[in-house]
Structures are given as C-alpha cells and as structure tokens.
What does this fold into?
Amino acid sequence: MTNDHLDDLEAEGIHILREAVAERKNPVLLFSGGKDSAVVLRLAEKAFRPGRFPFPLMHVDTGHNFEEVITFRDAQVAKLGERLIVASVEESIRTGRVRMADPDGSRNAAQSVTLLDAIKTYGFDCCFGGARRDEEKARAKERVFSVRDRFGRWDPRNQRPELWNLWNARVSAGGHLRVFPISNWTELDVWQYIDREQIALPTLYRSHLRDVVRRAGRIVAVTDVTPAGPGELVERIPVRFRTVGDITCTCPVESTASTEAEIIAETLLSSVTERGATRMDDATDEASMEKRKREGYF
It folds into this structure.
C-alpha cells in the first residue's frame, strides 16, 4: 500500500482546519493526549506553523485519567509552546454542576457538562476534535462540520448536507460547531500516519506488562480507581490500549505489539472496533453514544 491515500487525508484535514479558522471567530482544539488528538495536533502544525496556533488547546479532564496520558499531554503542550486550558470534571462535581449517582463510577458522560460550561465561559464558537466515523455507529451519523444549538445539543435528524467538500460554518446565535478534521480516517489510517510522521504517543498504546482482571468479557486494568473485586484473579499480562480515556471505562486488549508496524498488522486483522473492544460504558443503552452526543458529549 502506498501513502497516497494518507496524503489525500492529510490535505483534507488541513483544509478543514483552515476553513473553520477562517470562518469562525473563537475556535479551540480539544487535546486529550490520545492518538487521534495527537494526529489532529500534527495536522494543525502543518496548517499553521511556523506561526502560533490561532486557537488554544483544551482538555476536559475527568480526574480519572491515566498518569502516562497527562504526562504526555503536558510535555507536548510545553514542546509546542501553546496555551492549554484544563476544564475539570472534579471542579464541576465540587461546585455541584455535576452530580454523580456513584462517586466511584465512570465520569465519561459527565464530561458533557464540563465541556459546555467551558465553551460558554470562553465563548468558543468552534471546537476541533479527533472523532472518527468508524469508531461507533452514532459517530458515523456526524457531519464534518457538526452544528450544535445554543444549549450544546446535537440533532442527528437536522444536519446540513456536505457536498463536494463545501463546508458550511454558519451557526445560529449562541450555537457552535464541532469540527472533525479526521472524520474520514480509520483506525488503520491513524496508525499508518503515526508511523509515517513518527508522532509521539503515550506509552500505553504499546505493549507493556500490566496487572489486570477479566470482567464481563473484557480485560480491566487494576488501578486505585478500578481495583480487583472479591474473588477476581489478578493476572500480569502483556496488553496495550487502542484508545485511552476515563480509567473507569477504558479497557486494554491483550497484545504483544510494541512497534507501529506490529500495531498496524494487528489492526488489519481486528474484526472489532476500538470502542467496541475497549469502552465498557458504550455497551449499555443508558450510556449510549448517541444519547450522550445529543446532550453535548463530544
């Protein structure tokens, strides 16, 4: 396989970033430290360097993130010399903006409130993110330029057509856009681009030994936030993460792939989407992606 398709995807991503910046007054790039946001960050470098980015970076921090991801996030921001805004779910809980039914439960869905509050506080009218259409069926309903109303809500039945790469960046009063520069990429495309561009990532994405338990058909990392339950057998096995997020809902997969070439080969053989294999809270109707997205989730 040649890299021609990567050149096309890269050019499209750069065009999307530049078009949105040209049309909106106050954009922001969501950067979690994950592989997809790292790719979007590289596209932003190619779109706007050697000048400063025409937007800050923002991370919605659940407070239950893997230490390796936060360390990587801060190192990348420092290397680029850009501004990072951290919107804290912990702070939203402390101030009563978010109420958790289970204090030890997943904070993934709770990010919506924190994100919408940050958008309102800073007056952002356009948020760039690393979501891809192949991740999950609700994400496949998105447009590249996805409109949100003044309450931050998404209506999958009321979206604009996107023909011939003509992007409509207009929003109603109080509304904003969610823009996805790598919407047309697959997990395989992302890893091939990471390999080509030699993009740094958190060590979690490569095979490493970790204490885990097997729970409900998935592998769960044993941490302070997700301890082993009564009677569960703790194993130390080689694993890697296909996606990273809130510790309480992000699972690794058993793997010995430690290089880009090995991960690409493994991805080619996978028959399960990364979220289907590694996100516990996507498996329930109550926490479905579409329901959360309607309420403002990214």
